[in-house]
Specification:
This protein is of the alpha/beta class. Helices cover about 35% and strands about 15% of the residues. It contains twelve helices and 13 strands. The chain has helices at about 5, 30-45, 50-65, 80-90, 110-115, 135-140, 165-175, 220-225, 270-285, 285-305, 335-345, 365-380, and strands at about 15, 75, 100, 120-125, 145-150, 175-180, 200-205, 215-220, 310, 325-330, 345, 350, 355. The strands form three sheets. A seven-stranded mixed sheet has the order 2-8-7-6-5-3-4, with helices on both faces. Strands 9-10-13-12 form a four-stranded antiparallel sheet. A two-stranded parallel ribbon has the order 1-11. A hairpin with a 2-residue loop joins strand 12 (about 350) and strand 13 (about 355). Helix 2 runs antiparallel to helix 9 (about 270-285), helix 3 crosses helix 9 (about 270-285) and helix 10 runs parallel beside helix 12. The longest helix is centred in the last third of the chain and has 21 residues, at about 285-305.
Length: about 375
């Protein structure tokens, strides 16, 4: 990526930041957008409220474009957990139904399904092999009572990417909902919910989407909208919600036909303003261009680490790679590497017995060389 893009990220003046799988630093565009809406509220109160709503809807269009979806299939949620819980709780379960996931999922994509045990729903976890999710291992657990396969697009602890198309097609052919947690991939990898047969998709803005915390996006396919009902509702969940200010208003629980029925109340306007700015930059660069750049950069990182003698969770093929690199070395624990690197103003993260490195599109090969040089000194 060019230097003009790099200049948009002030953090480059302070740190070599390689922890985008945790929390992403703001670009100047995101910072400015948040400051602008905060200033508007401070100076004008709610006078420009209709402009806020327009911005929310315009941001919805940008999310839809990034996912190759329609705006009416997009809802803004509090976070990924909120979206997954809305899906899990909104399905009409029958005693004896089951959900299939895997044994290395992030808890946000386990606990909402595990809670359904009180309704007689079984959570089945497929065994992973070398931290990889095999579609066949998932399919072996399927029976006539399987309603959902719930899986992360990219696993937080390994960086391995799931084969969405293969799993999604199987789900579609077997009348199973394919529910994807995309927080460790959206913004770094290209997604097409139609091509990949995705029924529900959830991702918070604060990782690879490069937006603020506290605002998430949820996609529900038309099929999912028919099967999933809101369990948390409010005044914005229904048709003609503005009519509540009319003198002859009558209560009517008449849900919106779109995914907006899941937006029960006041949106995180400040967060959505920041997300809009992040999406505009991302779409300007191009999702496919970002993916190719990051896969090349991570391949370069894996190679450099292996030459230093690090053990890595390197993908065997590009289709299973992501923007996450995991490594370890016998000289120090991941926690010790993390602390030593932080002293050198390099930010990574210890995760599940590995040092996790997660760059984004403003990081370049010179940055990776700096990381490798520092690691070489630490282990020598």
């Amino acid at each position: 990526m060019n230097e003009e893009i790099r200049k948009l990220f002030p953090i480059t003046q302070n740190y070599l930041y390689l922890n985008h799988a945790a929390v992403t630093p703001y670009s100047t565009m995101v910072e400015s957008a948040i400051s602008k809406i905060a200033s508007d509220i401070a100076q004008n109160g709610s006078v420009n409220w209709h402009q806020w709503i327009d911005t929310v809807n315009n941001t919805r269009l940008l999310v839809a474009k990034l996912l190759n979806a329609k705006a009416e299939n997009i809802a803004f949620m509090k976070n990924t957990s909120d979206a997954i819980s809305a899906v899990a709780n909104g399905i009409n379960w029958v005693n004896g139904d089951n959900v299939i996931s895997c044994d290395i999922e992030f808890p946000a994509n386990i606990y909402p399904w595990m809670r359904l045990k009180q309704q007689g729903v079984e959570l089945r976890l497929a065994k992973t092999i070398n931290k990889k999710v095999s579609p066949e291992n998932l399919f072996q657990l399927v029976d006539s009572h399987t309603k959902v396969i719930a899986l992360s697009w990219v696993q937080y602890s390994s960086g391995f990417r799931a084969d969405l198309i293969t799993i999604g097609k199987f789900c579609r052919e077997n009348n199973i909902l394919f529910c994807v947690d995309g927080i460790q991939a959206l913004g770094a990898l290209e997604l097409d919910v139609e091509r990949d047969f995705v029924d529900t998709f959830a991702a918070d803005a604060h990782k690879f989407l490069m937006g603020p915390e506290g605002v998430g996006v949820m996609f529900l396919s038309n099929r999912a909208l028919e099967l999933i009902q809101p369990t948390t509702v409010g005044w914005l969940s229904v048709k003609n919600w503005w009519n509540c200010f009319d003198e002859d208003f009558e209560y009517k629980l008449d849900y919106l036909p779109s995914a907006q029925r899941f937006e029960c109340g006041t949106p995180n306007t400040v967060g959505i303003y920041g997300l809009k700015a992040a999406l505009e930059l991302m779409l300007k660069i191009g999702a496919k261009e970002i993916e190719n750049y990051l896969l090349d950069l991570c391949e370069y990182t894996f190679k450099g680490l292996q030459e230093l003698g690090f053990e890595t969770l390197a993908p065997t093929k590009r289709e299973e790679a992501s923007a996450i690199v995991c490594c370890r070395h016998s000289k120090f624990t991941p926690e010790q590497f993390y602390k030593a690197l932080l002293k050198e103003k390099i930010v990574c993260a210890p995760r599940c017995g590995w040092l996790r490195i997660s760059p984004h599109f403003y990081i370049n090969q010179a940055d990776i060389d700096q990381l490798l040089t520092t690691l070489r000194k630490l282990i020598s």
